[in-house]
Amino acid sequence: xxxxxxxxxxxxxxxxxxxxxxxxxxxxxxxxxxxxxxxxxxxxxxxxxxxxxxxxxxxxxxxxxxxxxxxxxxxxxxxxxxxxxxxxxxxxxxxxxxxxxxxxxxxxxxxxxxxxxxxxxxxxxxxxxxxxxxxxxxxxxxxxxxxxxxxxxxxxxxxxxxxxxxxxxxxxxxxxxxxxxxxxxxxxxxxxxxxxxxxxxxxxxxxxxxxxx
Length: 213
Known about the structure:
By secondary structure, the protein is of the alpha/beta class. It is built from 4 helices and 14 strands. It is globular and about 45 Å long. Pfam families: CoA_trans. This is 3-oxoacid CoA-transferase.
């Protein structure tokens, strides 16, 4: 698969977790693709820079309106604007139901690192730290390995962690993991993937808990 196909596979699977009336914050990278797979009007997208009701539907994109990742977006019917301080107040107050984040690394207890690489200048933590603390559910979307083929799901993160809160779910192009009591449980394999391949490409320990259909 191409890079775009891999990213869309992950985003499409993450979209299946968004059902019914909920407020969702999408992080930078793969998470931004999730919105294109949502048809339920009850799902409202939130951005840290002050918009509830983000839309990326073709025809409503406003080049002067951007999300927290500086990508042009539009406003859905009934959208509301507010300042960034109020937006972070919504996050910290527990009013975001689900956050979908990208990561650099995740470990076998569900801790993630997604804001700093020692020795490199990258964008910084943004709202990820607040979302990990304030969102009711946190889902991670990431490729299973880095560009050099190393596992991104580790026994322990080697980059600075984002928060001491564990995420709830990790979705890659190979598998879906749930974090239960700080343990990784592999609950689903992506089409055409074997559990042996997942084990080969995962440094972290995990429990096999595949659902039988």
